[in-house]
Every structure is written in structure tokens, then in C-alpha cells.
């Protein structure tokens, strides 16, 4: 659908849901890292995943801020 037709508040709510999902993923990765503290290989994989999630989160926060400033 056409994003322009979606109300701003709905876009923001959708972003907040996505942010929450990514933050949950991040804390799960942290828990996995703690559980695999002695497995260097696994830790490196988890760190890579965390970096990707963090990048996504940063982009989501930027979008959220941009939309929130329009309210």
C-alpha cells in the first residue's frame, strides 16, 4: 500500500513495535553470549549478529525521531 495514506501515529506505532522486537532480539543475543562465554567462535557469531541488530535499531530510532518530530 501507499505509505503516505497511513496516519503518522500508525507509522510510529509500527516502528515502536519493530524497535521492541529488535531490542528483545538484542537481549536474547546477550543472554546467549553469557551462556556461551567460553565458546570463542560462538561469541564472535553472536557479536556479528548483535552488530546487525544494533544497526537496524539505530535506523529505526532515526525513523522514529523523524516521524515523532512531525507530530
Descriptive report:
With 71 residues, the chain is mostly helical. Helices cover 80% and strands 0% of the residues. The protein has helices at 8-35, 40-68. Helix 1 (8-35) packs antiparallel against helix 2 (40-68).
Strand content: under 5%
The secondary structure category is mainly alpha
| Average pLDDT number | 94
- Sum up the overall morphology in one term: elongated
User: End-to-end distance, in Å?
Assistant: 22 Å
* Main sheet properties: none
List segments where confidence is low: pLDDT < 50 over at least 5 consecutive residues: none
Helix content: over 70%
> What is the C-alpha radius of gyration, as a whole number of Å?
16 Å
User: How many helices?
Assistant: 2
Q: Report the order of strands and helices.
A: HH
What are its keywords?
single chain, 71 residues, mainly alpha, 80% helix
